[in-house]
Amino acid sequence: MGERDIADLLSGGEAFADLSVWRKTFVSGGDAFGWLNDLVSADISGLEAGSAKRSLLLSPTGRVRAEFTVAVTADGILLIQDPDQPEAIDELLARYVLSSDVDLQGRTEALALFGFPGMAEPPEAAGATVSIPSCLGKGVDLLAPAGDHDRLVGTLERNYQRGDEKDVEAWRVRSGIPRFGIDGTPEDLPQECGFDETVAFGKGCYLGQEAMAKVHNLGHPRRLLVHLEASEPVTPGQSVIAGGGEVGEITSAARFDGRTVALARVAWDAREGPFETSSGGALSMLAPAGRDQASAR
């Protein structure tokens, strides 16, 4: 079965991704919830066991340092992070523990993780706990002890297809969900790389809050991430043209069902297009990037 077919099945809740290699950090201690909520961009104060929320850790100037999912389990808080990001969230957070009653423990090797990005209700999987939404941006995650990994894979494969990293990428790009380290860099504000939905603008102080308030209330970002369909195949790094000049570049691309879909960072002043590739191919707007993921929260 081809890559595009699995991406379709992921969208339809008929396939899953084995995300067990993703970074997992357990946060515990009497101060854990309040301490973390004072640092991260999302408001996690109302999360209960089985629920999750995508969030960021920002620099004091509002630049993105890490993107991750805060998942609340029966045992406490689990931070789940794409392993391809440049900095691990546990190492970034460790410097802020100081005298707080907080403990950070790596659980990457101890836990299996499976993502069902197109599923609304969790599948039957004895021994696994559920986290909603998925760390992929939509859907459902299953967590289990690493010792149950192979058993659960066998159980899940009886009813669902298993996708690989390329399949997940094709699904992600089609869905318009940004990936930090690919569509955004540590030089970007959340609004510049499609992560504005992860920022709780009404929350009290957190790292980068003053910079976020300034952009939100007084100005606009330098660039935006847009979701596009191309009339021809495109590749990451390819220039985006508007008004006869270069206004940005393709950051992610996927081809399926004869269509090419891409994410691109473009200058604010050129955000409405029309866009074309450096070779003259048309680029039509699909939707603001990053918005599709919000429907799952």
Please describe what this structure looks like.
This protein has 297 residues and is α+β, with helices and mostly antiparallel strands. It has two domains: 173 residues, Gyrase A, domain 2 (2-Layer Sandwich); 76 residues, Beta Barrel (Elongation Factor Tu (Ef-tu), domain 3), CATH 2.40.30.110. Helix content is 17%, strand content 32%. Strands 11-14-13-12-15-16 form a six-stranded antiparallel beta barrel. The protein has a five-stranded mixed beta sheet with strand order 8-9-7-1-10, sandwiched between helices. A hairpin with an 8-residue loop joins β8 and β9. α1 packs across α5. The longest helix has 11 residues. The relative contact order is 0.17. The C terminus is likely disordered.
> What is the helix content?
10-25%
Structural class: alpha+beta
CATH class of the largest domain: Alpha Beta
Overall shape: it is flat
Low-confidence stretches: 291-297
- Number of helical elements: 6
Order of adjacent strands in the largest pleated sheet: 11-14-13-12-15-16
N to C succession of SSEs: HEEHEEEHEEEEHEHHEEEEEE
CATH topology of the largest domain: Gyrase A, domain 2
Annotated CATH architecture of the largest domain: 2-Layer Sandwich
